[in-house]
Amino acid sequence: TGVISSLQRQLEIQESQLWRIKSEKEMLQKQLSERENQLQAMSTKFCSLREEQKHEETMVTIEKENCSLRQVVTEQESKLAEQNKLISELQGTVSQLQAEVRTSRYHIHKQQQAQAAIQSQAETLQHRELQTRVALECVTSRFERYRSKIIQATFSTAGSKPPQAEVTDEEVLEAMQKIINERMEFHQMLKQKGVR
């Protein structure tokens, strides 16, 4: 945004200079036209005086005025050419600044789009994280209930002592394995005795 503001200020300065130079050009063209009219008038006057055969001194004066006017016209034309050249250069600078402004705006638009996409992805990830936490809490709660039931079932069998403190997973597994082994031994004993 700072680059665009700077470019726009430069653009406004260049356009102001361009407008001022165009005004000067118009003024020079007007002056040139006036000088040409004066020259034409003087030439007409000179011709009239020659036709009337006036004094040679008046003819010399008119000729000097004509020379002076021609010199002024030449100077004005030179200035006009310089102004035209400067106008062309300023127009090129203005075009370049306008292109830079368009490029900067395009980059800013792309950055805004990328930022919006990242923001959307962040919101999606936050939503997924919340869903995952809820699911994890649900699974953890179900696991704790299931573990509690396993412990209750394991230590409520005949001959088992209820735990006095918090039971680890390894202790629960050992108690279950002991019950399973005892059932298998009892089953084998019944089988050997022929009891179905």
Automatic annotation (TrEMBL):
Origin: domain of life: Eukaryota
Signal peptide: none
Keyword tags: Coiled coil
Coiled coil: 4-45, 73-100
Name of the protein in question: CCD27 protein
Organism: Oceanites oceanicus
Encoding gene, per UniProt annotation: Ccdc27
